[in-house]
Amino acid sequence: MANKKDLDTYPWTGHAAITGKLKREWQDSDTILAYFARRRGEAILGYNQFVEQGIMQGKRKELVVGGLIRSLWGWP
């Protein structure tokens, strides 16, 4: 994922539903947004800032598949 614009249109995450770009009845976006603000618009802004800050951190090896295995004993 190169940037937030790519994430806005990527179908395999919940991001578009959380930000209101895609409607998914089964996805509980309100619970996620409640971590950022009480009012929906402010919460979406806060969530987007959080996502953008994460993108700026780049790829983190501890969050890549196999990170636990690598941290404990490494790949054979």
**Radius of gyration over all CA atoms, rounded:** 15 Å
Count the E strands: 0
Strand portion: under 5%
Number of helices: 5
Molecular shape: elongated
For the sheet with most strands, the description reads:
none
Structural domains: how many: 1
Mean pLDDT: 83
**What is the percent of helical residues?**
40-55%
Low-pLDDT stretches? none
Taking the alpha carbons of the first and last residues, their distance comes to 28 Å
- Compressed to H and E, one letter per element, the order equals HHHHH
**What structural class is derived from the secondary structure elements?**
mainly alpha
Give an overview in words.
This protein has 76 residues and is mostly helical. It has one domain. It has 5 helices and no strands.
